[in-house]
Specification:
The protein contains six helices and 13 strands. It is of the alpha+beta class.
């Protein structure tokens, strides 16, 4: 069976000179340090083109919010053109800068995959071959001007081994028929559904989970235990 997609290059390619011109406009604004200061070493800053509050300084990418264009996006016509070229709903859209020599430590962004209903797309504007993503142990460099999908559910890290700041335009897109067709044409492979419906339940702990559910004696818990038990024992028969 083929492995599920950890990263993927999608067809859209954008004009670097025009991306850089809008980036120059954005650089005149105040960028925010990433709020999770334990997740990185060195400088990691961001500014929003779409945010939950409509403010460019609101860089939170929480999923349970309605997002709107910031005033900064209105000053960046090519960024607006890029966003409009994706015929799907956009949630958080940010410019994200990683300083020379900085690194983002290994972590997972739960719910951050196409299978979860979120496609995180990177369009590098300023980069270098020494800027490397590591996704579940695989190193990959995202080339400038192209569109790249990253499955953020994977254990991932980033290191900027270059002497200059790296800047990506990062779009959180909601999958629809248009986007799914784009992924399919690009060779995307879906991850298999969790065996027990919850990735935290595995063959190693399923019996313990079932016992705890049954101990509650609640009807809903008992019904869930019955379903898990059926999966556990049917799997053992294969």
């Amino acid at each position: 069976m083929s492995e599920a997609t950890r990263w993927l290059r999608l067809p859209p390619v954008f004009e670097l000179a025009r991306l850089q011109a809008d980036l120059d406009t954005a650089l005149a604004s105040h960028w925010q340090a990433h709020y999770n200061d334990r997740a990185y070493r060195g400088g990691w800053t961001s500014i929003a083109l779409r945010s939950a509050s409509g403010g460019a300084g609101d860089i939170d990418a929480r999923e349970d919010a309605d997002f709107s264009d910031t005033g900064l996006l209105g000053c960046c016509p090519y960024f607006q053109e890029v966003l409009d070229s994706f015929d799907c709903e956009k949630k958080a859209v940010r410019l994200m800068a990683l300083a020379a020599g900085a690194e983002i430590k290994p972590h997972r962004d739960r719910g951050g995959s196409l299978e979860d209903g979120l496609a995180r797309l990177h369009i590098p504007i300023v980069t270098d071959p020494a800027v490397v993503f590591t996704l579940d142990g695989e190193d990959v460099h995202f080339g400038a001007g192209a569109t790249w999908y990253m499955n953020a559910n994977c254990l991932h890290a980033v290191r900027n081994g270059s002497a200059r700041e790296r800047v990506h335009l990062v779009l959180d897109c909601v999958p629809n028929a248009w986007l799914l067709a784009l992924f399919a044409r690009s060779g995307w492979r879906a991850a298999p559904a969790p065996k027990y419906g919850d990735p935290n339940i595995t063959d190693a702990n399923a019996a313990e989970v079932i016992a705890r559910l049954r101990a509650t004696a609640l009807p809903a818990a008992t019904a869930m235990a019955d379903r898990l038990e059926k999966v556990l024992f049917d799997g053992d028969k294969k």
